[in-house]
UniProtKB/TrEMBL annotation:
Gene Ontology CC annotation, any one: plasma membrane
Pfam family name, one: Sulf_transp
Lineage: Archaea, Thermoproteota, Thermoprotei, Sulfolobales, Sulfolobaceae
Keyword Cell membrane: yes
Organism encoding this protein: Sulfuracidifex metallicus DSM 6482 = JCM 9184
InterPro entries, alphabetized: Sulf_transp_TsuA/YedE
Signal peptide bounds: none
Residues that span the membrane, as ranges: 6-22, 43-64, 76-100, 112-131, 171-189, 252-275, 311-328, 348-368, 388-406
Primary location recorded for the protein, binned into one broad class: membrane
Keyword set, alphabetical order: Cell inner membrane, Cell membrane, Membrane, Transmembrane, Transmembrane helix, Transport
Bilayer topology annotation: Multi-pass membrane protein
Localization per Swiss-Prot or TrEMBL: Cell inner membrane
UniProt name for this protein: YeeE/YedE family protein
PANTHER family: INNER MEMBRANE PROTEIN YEDE (PTHR30574), SULPHUR TRANSPORT DOMAIN-CONTAINING PROTEIN (PTHR30574:SF1)
Length: 407
Protein backbone atom coordinates (compact mmCIF):
# COMPACT_ATOMS: atom_id res chain seq x y z
CA UNK A 1 0.00 0.00 0.00
CA UNK A 2 1.31 3.45 -0.95
CA UNK A 3 1.19 5.81 2.06
CA UNK A 4 2.59 9.20 2.95
CA UNK A 5 2.45 11.57 5.93
CA UNK A 6 3.10 15.24 5.30
CA UNK A 7 4.44 17.65 7.94
CA UNK A 8 1.96 19.73 9.92
CA UNK A 9 2.67 23.00 8.12
CA UNK A 10 1.19 21.59 4.90
CA UNK A 11 -2.17 22.14 6.61
CA UNK A 12 -1.65 25.86 5.97
CA UNK A 13 -1.68 25.24 2.21
CA UNK A 14 -4.69 22.93 2.35
CA UNK A 15 -6.62 25.43 4.46
CA UNK A 16 -5.62 28.26 2.13
CA UNK A 17 -7.08 26.48 -0.91
CA UNK A 18 -10.33 25.54 0.83
CA UNK A 19 -10.68 28.95 2.50
CA UNK A 20 -10.21 30.80 -0.77
CA UNK A 21 -12.58 28.50 -2.67
CA UNK A 22 -15.27 28.66 0.00
CA UNK A 23 -15.02 32.46 0.20
CA UNK A 24 -15.70 32.57 -3.53
CA UNK A 25 -18.69 30.29 -2.85
CA UNK A 26 -19.99 32.94 -0.47
CA UNK A 27 -19.74 30.73 2.63
CA UNK A 28 -17.90 33.47 4.55
CA UNK A 29 -21.07 35.56 4.45
CA UNK A 30 -23.55 34.44 7.15
CA UNK A 31 -26.47 35.41 4.93
CA UNK A 32 -25.58 32.48 2.64
CA UNK A 33 -26.11 29.91 5.38
CA UNK A 34 -29.12 31.73 6.82
CA UNK A 35 -30.75 31.54 3.38
CA UNK A 36 -29.91 27.86 3.25
CA UNK A 37 -31.58 27.44 6.65
CA UNK A 38 -34.63 29.30 5.29
CA UNK A 39 -34.48 26.96 2.25
CA UNK A 40 -34.28 29.97 -0.07
CA UNK A 41 -30.86 29.31 -1.64
CA UNK A 42 -29.48 25.76 -1.77
CA UNK A 43 -26.15 26.54 -3.46
CA UNK A 44 -24.16 25.20 -0.50
CA UNK A 45 -26.03 21.91 -0.52
CA UNK A 46 -25.74 21.61 -4.32
CA UNK A 47 -22.00 22.21 -4.18
CA UNK A 48 -21.44 19.79 -1.28
CA UNK A 49 -23.30 17.04 -3.16
CA UNK A 50 -21.23 17.72 -6.28
CA UNK A 51 -18.06 17.57 -4.18
CA UNK A 52 -19.12 14.16 -2.86
CA UNK A 53 -20.00 12.91 -6.34
CA UNK A 54 -16.55 13.90 -7.65
CA UNK A 55 -14.37 12.94 -4.69
CA UNK A 56 -15.89 9.71 -3.36
CA UNK A 57 -15.24 7.52 -6.44
CA UNK A 58 -11.74 9.01 -6.68
CA UNK A 59 -10.78 8.13 -3.12
CA UNK A 60 -12.29 4.63 -3.17
CA UNK A 61 -10.94 3.96 -6.65
CA UNK A 62 -7.43 4.89 -5.56
CA UNK A 63 -7.85 2.86 -2.39
CA UNK A 64 -8.83 -0.20 -4.44
CA UNK A 65 -5.73 0.40 -6.57
CA UNK A 66 -3.44 0.31 -3.53
CA UNK A 67 -3.17 3.94 -2.40
CA UNK A 68 -3.40 4.41 1.36
CA UNK A 69 -5.37 7.20 3.02
CA UNK A 70 -5.59 8.51 6.57
CA UNK A 71 -9.19 7.38 7.08
CA UNK A 72 -11.17 9.07 9.84
CA UNK A 73 -14.91 8.35 9.58
CA UNK A 74 -16.36 9.51 12.89
CA UNK A 75 -17.75 6.91 15.33
CA UNK A 76 -21.48 6.31 15.01
CA UNK A 77 -22.83 6.83 18.54
CA UNK A 78 -26.49 7.38 17.77
CA UNK A 79 -27.69 9.58 20.64
CA UNK A 80 -24.68 11.90 20.95
CA UNK A 81 -24.30 12.41 17.20
CA UNK A 82 -28.02 13.07 16.75
CA UNK A 83 -28.35 15.49 19.67
CA UNK A 84 -25.13 17.22 18.66
CA UNK A 85 -26.49 17.64 15.13
CA UNK A 86 -29.69 19.20 16.49
CA UNK A 87 -27.73 21.76 18.54
CA UNK A 88 -25.40 22.41 15.60
CA UNK A 89 -28.28 23.03 13.18
CA UNK A 90 -30.02 25.42 15.55
CA UNK A 91 -26.81 27.37 16.13
CA UNK A 92 -26.09 27.50 12.41
CA UNK A 93 -29.53 28.95 11.64
CA UNK A 94 -29.14 31.61 14.33
CA UNK A 95 -25.57 32.68 13.64
CA UNK A 96 -25.19 31.91 9.93
CA UNK A 97 -21.86 30.25 10.71
CA UNK A 98 -20.28 26.85 11.06
CA UNK A 99 -16.78 26.46 12.58
CA UNK A 100 -14.79 26.78 9.36
CA UNK A 101 -16.82 29.69 8.02
CA UNK A 102 -16.08 31.70 11.19
CA UNK A 103 -12.39 31.68 10.25
CA UNK A 104 -13.30 32.54 6.65
CA UNK A 105 -15.49 35.41 7.86
CA UNK A 106 -12.63 36.79 9.93
CA UNK A 107 -10.52 36.66 6.77
CA UNK A 108 -13.29 38.50 4.93
CA UNK A 109 -13.28 41.19 7.62
CA UNK A 110 -16.71 40.50 9.12
CA UNK A 111 -17.21 42.11 12.53
CA UNK A 112 -19.79 39.68 13.92
CA UNK A 113 -17.35 36.81 13.36
CA UNK A 114 -15.32 38.16 16.30
CA UNK A 115 -18.28 37.49 18.60
CA UNK A 116 -18.94 34.16 16.92
CA UNK A 117 -15.45 32.88 17.65
CA UNK A 118 -15.78 33.80 21.34
CA UNK A 119 -19.09 31.94 21.51
CA UNK A 120 -17.58 28.98 19.67
CA UNK A 121 -14.67 28.66 22.10
CA UNK A 122 -17.04 28.80 25.09
CA UNK A 123 -19.29 26.19 23.45
CA UNK A 124 -16.30 23.90 23.02
CA UNK A 125 -15.30 24.57 26.65
CA UNK A 126 -18.79 23.57 27.81
CA UNK A 127 -18.48 20.17 26.13
CA UNK A 128 -15.02 19.74 27.67
CA UNK A 129 -16.66 20.07 31.10
CA UNK A 130 -19.64 17.83 30.23
CA UNK A 131 -17.49 15.09 28.68
CA UNK A 132 -16.11 13.74 31.94
CA UNK A 133 -19.51 13.66 33.64
CA UNK A 134 -21.85 10.63 33.59
CA UNK A 135 -24.01 12.48 31.05
CA UNK A 136 -21.10 12.98 28.67
CA UNK A 137 -20.00 9.38 28.99
CA UNK A 138 -23.54 8.17 28.30
CA UNK A 139 -23.86 10.33 25.19
CA UNK A 140 -20.70 9.01 23.52
CA UNK A 141 -20.86 5.39 24.66
CA UNK A 142 -24.52 4.48 24.32
CA UNK A 143 -25.37 2.80 21.00
CA UNK A 144 -21.81 3.32 19.76
CA UNK A 145 -21.26 1.16 16.66
CA UNK A 146 -17.79 2.38 15.75
CA UNK A 147 -16.54 4.02 12.55
CA UNK A 148 -18.84 2.59 9.88
CA UNK A 149 -19.01 3.48 6.20
CA UNK A 150 -21.21 2.12 3.43
CA UNK A 151 -19.85 -1.37 2.79
CA UNK A 152 -17.10 -1.31 5.41
CA UNK A 153 -15.63 -0.29 8.75
CA UNK A 154 -12.46 1.49 9.77
CA UNK A 155 -10.20 -0.96 11.62
CA UNK A 156 -6.91 0.99 11.61
CA UNK A 157 -5.66 4.42 10.47
CA UNK A 158 -5.00 3.23 6.91
CA UNK A 159 -7.58 0.46 6.57
CA UNK A 160 -11.28 0.46 5.77
CA UNK A 161 -12.18 -3.21 6.02
CA UNK A 162 -14.94 -4.23 3.58
CA UNK A 163 -17.88 -6.08 5.11
CA UNK A 164 -17.95 -9.85 4.83
CA UNK A 165 -18.21 -10.96 1.22
CA UNK A 166 -17.13 -7.58 -0.20
CA UNK A 167 -13.81 -6.41 -1.61
CA UNK A 168 -12.21 -3.02 -2.07
CA UNK A 169 -13.34 -3.11 -5.70
CA UNK A 170 -16.91 -3.72 -4.50
CA UNK A 171 -16.64 -0.64 -2.32
CA UNK A 172 -15.49 1.32 -5.36
CA UNK A 173 -18.64 0.16 -7.19
CA UNK A 174 -20.73 1.23 -4.19
CA UNK A 175 -19.02 4.64 -4.34
CA UNK A 176 -19.97 5.00 -8.00
CA UNK A 177 -23.63 4.29 -7.23
CA UNK A 178 -23.44 6.65 -4.24
CA UNK A 179 -21.96 9.38 -6.46
CA UNK A 180 -24.59 8.87 -9.16
CA UNK A 181 -27.44 9.24 -6.65
CA UNK A 182 -25.97 12.41 -5.12
CA UNK A 183 -25.20 13.93 -8.52
CA UNK A 184 -28.79 13.28 -9.64
CA UNK A 185 -30.11 15.09 -6.56
CA UNK A 186 -27.73 18.00 -7.19
CA UNK A 187 -28.80 18.16 -10.84
CA UNK A 188 -32.54 18.23 -10.25
CA UNK A 189 -32.81 20.15 -6.97
CA UNK A 190 -33.48 23.82 -7.84
CA UNK A 191 -31.00 26.23 -6.36
CA UNK A 192 -33.55 28.91 -5.48
CA UNK A 193 -36.92 28.76 -3.81
CA UNK A 194 -39.40 29.44 -6.60
CA UNK A 195 -36.82 28.51 -9.26
CA UNK A 196 -36.62 25.49 -11.52
CA UNK A 197 -32.94 24.71 -12.09
CA UNK A 198 -29.83 23.81 -10.16
CA UNK A 199 -26.50 25.44 -11.03
CA UNK A 200 -25.58 22.45 -13.20
CA UNK A 201 -28.88 22.35 -15.03
CA UNK A 202 -28.89 26.11 -15.64
CA UNK A 203 -25.44 25.86 -17.21
CA UNK A 204 -26.29 22.80 -19.30
CA UNK A 205 -29.52 24.32 -20.60
CA UNK A 206 -27.98 27.81 -20.81
CA UNK A 207 -31.12 29.49 -19.59
CA UNK A 208 -32.79 30.67 -16.39
CA UNK A 209 -36.25 31.83 -15.47
CA UNK A 210 -36.82 35.51 -14.65
CA UNK A 211 -37.05 34.71 -10.94
CA UNK A 212 -33.71 32.87 -11.09
CA UNK A 213 -32.06 35.83 -12.78
CA UNK A 214 -33.47 38.15 -10.13
CA UNK A 215 -32.25 35.85 -7.36
CA UNK A 216 -28.76 35.89 -8.88
CA UNK A 217 -28.81 39.69 -8.86
CA UNK A 218 -29.97 39.73 -5.24
CA UNK A 219 -27.22 37.25 -4.30
CA UNK A 220 -24.56 39.45 -5.90
CA UNK A 221 -25.90 42.43 -3.93
CA UNK A 222 -25.69 40.83 -0.49
CA UNK A 223 -22.36 39.11 -1.18
CA UNK A 224 -20.72 42.42 -2.08
CA UNK A 225 -22.46 44.52 0.58
CA UNK A 226 -19.83 46.55 2.41
CA UNK A 227 -17.04 45.16 0.24
CA UNK A 228 -14.31 46.81 -1.81
CA UNK A 229 -15.09 48.50 -5.13
CA UNK A 230 -14.39 46.75 -8.42
CA UNK A 231 -14.60 47.82 -12.05
CA UNK A 232 -16.03 46.53 -15.29
CA UNK A 233 -14.22 43.59 -16.84
CA UNK A 234 -12.53 42.59 -13.58
CA UNK A 235 -12.42 39.05 -12.22
CA UNK A 236 -14.44 40.27 -9.22
CA UNK A 237 -17.30 41.30 -11.48
CA UNK A 238 -17.26 37.92 -13.21
CA UNK A 239 -17.19 35.99 -9.93
CA UNK A 240 -19.82 38.09 -8.20
CA UNK A 241 -22.11 38.60 -11.19
CA UNK A 242 -21.48 35.41 -13.15
CA UNK A 243 -25.15 35.13 -14.03
CA UNK A 244 -24.62 37.84 -16.66
CA UNK A 245 -21.51 36.45 -18.31
CA UNK A 246 -21.16 34.13 -21.25
CA UNK A 247 -17.63 33.00 -20.47
CA UNK A 248 -17.58 29.22 -19.98
CA UNK A 249 -15.09 29.46 -17.13
CA UNK A 250 -17.25 31.77 -15.05
CA UNK A 251 -20.51 30.06 -15.97
CA UNK A 252 -19.14 26.83 -14.49
CA UNK A 253 -17.29 28.61 -11.67
CA UNK A 254 -19.33 27.44 -8.68
CA UNK A 255 -19.49 23.85 -9.91
CA UNK A 256 -15.74 23.80 -10.55
CA UNK A 257 -15.12 25.08 -7.03
CA UNK A 258 -17.27 22.26 -5.63
CA UNK A 259 -15.14 19.65 -7.39
CA UNK A 260 -11.94 21.41 -6.31
CA UNK A 261 -12.96 21.34 -2.65
CA UNK A 262 -13.84 17.64 -2.83
CA UNK A 263 -10.55 16.70 -4.49
CA UNK A 264 -8.62 18.85 -2.01
CA UNK A 265 -10.11 16.81 0.83
CA UNK A 266 -9.00 13.62 -0.95
CA UNK A 267 -5.48 15.04 -1.24
CA UNK A 268 -5.57 16.05 2.41
CA UNK A 269 -6.54 12.53 3.48
CA UNK A 270 -3.63 11.13 1.49
CA UNK A 271 -1.18 13.62 2.96
CA UNK A 272 -2.18 13.58 6.62
CA UNK A 273 -5.83 13.58 7.77
CA UNK A 274 -9.40 14.57 7.01
CA UNK A 275 -10.48 18.19 6.78
CA UNK A 276 -11.84 19.30 10.16
CA UNK A 277 -12.28 22.66 11.85
CA UNK A 278 -14.03 22.45 15.23
CA UNK A 279 -11.26 20.58 17.05
CA UNK A 280 -9.23 23.79 17.07
CA UNK A 281 -11.89 25.44 19.26
CA UNK A 282 -11.55 22.64 21.85
CA UNK A 283 -7.77 22.93 21.65
CA UNK A 284 -7.97 26.70 22.30
CA UNK A 285 -10.48 26.21 25.13
CA UNK A 286 -8.23 23.59 26.70
CA UNK A 287 -5.14 25.76 26.43
CA UNK A 288 -6.90 28.82 27.86
CA UNK A 289 -9.21 27.48 30.55
CA UNK A 290 -9.28 23.73 31.02
CA UNK A 291 -5.84 22.18 30.49
CA UNK A 292 -6.30 19.40 33.08
CA UNK A 293 -9.71 18.20 31.94
CA UNK A 294 -9.96 14.73 30.41
CA UNK A 295 -11.32 15.92 27.08
CA UNK A 296 -8.59 18.56 26.77
CA UNK A 297 -5.96 15.89 27.30
CA UNK A 298 -7.53 13.78 24.54
CA UNK A 299 -7.54 16.78 22.19
CA UNK A 300 -3.94 17.73 23.03
CA UNK A 301 -2.82 14.19 22.29
CA UNK A 302 -4.82 13.73 19.11
CA UNK A 303 -4.74 17.21 17.54
CA UNK A 304 -3.44 17.16 13.98
CA UNK A 305 -2.91 20.09 11.69
CA UNK A 306 -6.34 21.63 12.42
CA UNK A 307 -4.85 24.84 13.91
CA UNK A 308 -2.64 25.18 10.83
CA UNK A 309 -5.50 24.51 8.41
CA UNK A 310 -7.72 26.99 10.26
CA UNK A 311 -5.06 29.68 9.94
CA UNK A 312 -4.74 28.73 6.28
CA UNK A 313 -8.51 28.97 5.88
CA UNK A 314 -8.47 32.49 7.31
CA UNK A 315 -5.57 33.49 5.04
CA UNK A 316 -7.18 31.95 1.96
CA UNK A 317 -10.44 33.79 2.59
CA UNK A 318 -8.55 37.03 3.15
CA UNK A 319 -6.63 36.62 -0.09
CA UNK A 320 -9.75 35.79 -2.08
CA UNK A 321 -11.83 38.60 -0.57
CA UNK A 322 -9.16 41.23 -1.26
CA UNK A 323 -7.72 40.14 -4.60
CA UNK A 324 -10.43 38.05 -6.30
CA UNK A 325 -13.98 38.71 -5.10
CA UNK A 326 -13.33 42.13 -3.48
CA UNK A 327 -15.81 41.28 -0.69
CA UNK A 328 -13.52 42.33 2.17
CA UNK A 329 -15.72 44.39 4.53
CA UNK A 330 -12.92 45.94 6.64
CA UNK A 331 -14.83 45.03 9.83
CA UNK A 332 -17.56 47.55 9.11
CA UNK A 333 -21.03 47.04 10.54
CA UNK A 334 -22.51 44.75 7.89
CA UNK A 335 -25.50 42.76 9.17
CA UNK A 336 -27.09 39.92 7.14
CA UNK A 337 -30.25 41.11 5.32
CA UNK A 338 -32.38 38.24 6.67
CA UNK A 339 -31.37 39.21 10.20
CA UNK A 340 -32.15 42.89 9.54
CA UNK A 341 -35.59 42.02 8.13
CA UNK A 342 -36.47 40.10 11.30
CA UNK A 343 -34.59 41.87 14.10
CA UNK A 344 -33.48 45.23 12.68
CA UNK A 345 -29.95 46.53 12.34
CA UNK A 346 -29.06 46.89 16.02
CA UNK A 347 -25.45 45.76 16.35
CA UNK A 348 -25.82 44.45 19.90
CA UNK A 349 -28.73 42.19 18.95
CA UNK A 350 -26.81 40.78 15.98
CA UNK A 351 -23.72 40.21 18.07
CA UNK A 352 -25.82 38.32 20.66
CA UNK A 353 -27.21 36.14 17.86
CA UNK A 354 -23.76 35.53 16.42
CA UNK A 355 -22.31 34.70 19.84
CA UNK A 356 -25.21 32.53 21.03
CA UNK A 357 -25.63 30.66 17.75
CA UNK A 358 -21.91 29.88 17.57
CA UNK A 359 -22.00 28.68 21.19
CA UNK A 360 -24.77 26.16 20.43
CA UNK A 361 -23.08 25.13 17.20
CA UNK A 362 -19.72 24.27 18.79
CA UNK A 363 -21.32 22.56 21.76
CA UNK A 364 -23.17 20.36 19.26
CA UNK A 365 -20.11 19.82 17.08
CA UNK A 366 -17.93 18.60 19.92
CA UNK A 367 -20.74 16.48 21.36
CA UNK A 368 -21.10 14.78 17.97
CA UNK A 369 -17.34 14.49 17.49
CA UNK A 370 -17.21 16.64 14.35
CA UNK A 371 -18.73 19.53 12.44
CA UNK A 372 -19.70 20.49 8.91
CA UNK A 373 -16.11 19.86 7.83
CA UNK A 374 -15.26 16.67 9.73
CA UNK A 375 -18.69 15.04 9.76
CA UNK A 376 -20.49 16.30 6.66
CA UNK A 377 -17.78 17.19 4.11
CA UNK A 378 -15.07 14.69 5.04
CA UNK A 379 -17.55 12.14 6.35
CA UNK A 380 -19.72 12.33 3.25
CA UNK A 381 -16.72 11.75 0.99
CA UNK A 382 -15.86 8.66 3.07
CA UNK A 383 -19.53 7.47 2.95
CA UNK A 384 -19.50 7.58 6.77
CA UNK A 385 -22.82 6.64 8.39
CA UNK A 386 -22.15 9.00 11.30
CA UNK A 387 -21.70 11.86 8.85
CA UNK A 388 -25.09 11.21 7.30
CA UNK A 389 -26.85 10.92 10.67
CA UNK A 390 -25.26 14.20 11.70
CA UNK A 391 -26.20 15.86 8.40
CA UNK A 392 -29.85 14.82 8.63
CA UNK A 393 -30.07 16.05 12.23
CA UNK A 394 -28.40 19.35 11.30
CA UNK A 395 -30.71 20.01 8.35
CA UNK A 396 -33.89 19.12 10.23
CA UNK A 397 -32.95 21.33 13.17
CA UNK A 398 -31.69 24.13 10.93
CA UNK A 399 -34.89 24.26 8.87
CA UNK A 400 -37.15 24.18 11.95
CA UNK A 401 -35.13 26.83 13.78
CA UNK A 402 -35.11 29.14 10.76
CA UNK A 403 -38.85 28.71 10.32
CA UNK A 404 -39.47 29.70 13.93
CA UNK A 405 -36.79 32.41 14.11
CA UNK A 406 -37.19 34.21 10.79
CA UNK A 407 -40.85 33.35 10.17
Amino acid sequence: MITFTAPMWVGLLIGFVIGGAAEAWGISNPETLIRLAKWEDRLFLDCILIGFAVATPVIFGLYAAGVGFHWSPKPLYIIGVGLGGILFGAGLAISGYFPGSIWMALGEGRRDAIYAIVGAILGAATWTVIYQTPVGSWLVNTLNFGSLVLGGKKVSPYVIQPLDGLTKFDMFIISLIYAAVLFTIAYYMPRYKGGFRSCIRANVEKRMSPIEVQKHIDTAVYLTDGGLPYGEGTIAKKVNEYYATEDNVTRWFMISVAGLVGLTVVLEMFLHQIFGESTTMSWIAGQLFLPDFKYSQIVFKGIGWEPFSDIGTLMGAFFASVFITRRFTSFRNVIPPSWVARFGNNQAVRFMGSFGGAYLMLLGARMAGGCASGHILSGGIQMALSGWEFAFAVFASMLLTARLLYR
